[in-house]
Write a structure and sequence with these properties.
By secondary structure, this protein is α+β, with helices and mostly antiparallel strands. The chain has helices at 41-49, 52-60, and strands at residues 4-5, 11-17, 22-27, 33-36, 66-68. It has one domain (4-68). Strands 1-2-3-4-5 form a 5-stranded antiparallel beta sheet, with helices on one face. The chain is globular, with a radius of gyration of 11 Å.
Length: 70
């Protein structure tokens, strides 16, 4: 999946595949890449529009099936 680099103290890059509704996040602290499944496309745009770390904590963490992929 293609990811775009972002300005965030917590996240290095983010990507989204609308065909599979998969969100991918690369975290700065560990360099780990996680995928979040069944993530709605409208939330992808909300996620990108604000504070990535705050949105992740409030609306993504522990809300979706996830898997570390890198």
């Amino acid at each position: 999946m293609d990811r775009e680099y972002v300005e965030s103290s917590m996240i290095t890059s983010i990507g989204y595949d609308p065909n599979t509704s998969t969100l991918e996040i690369e975290f700065k602290s560990t360099g780990a890449v996680w995928q979040y499944y069944d993530f709605p496309e409208n939330l992808w745009y909300e996620f990108k529009a604000g504070s990535l770390g705050k949105f992740w904590h409030a609306s993504i963490k522990d809300q979706y099936r996830e898997n570390q992929v890198g």
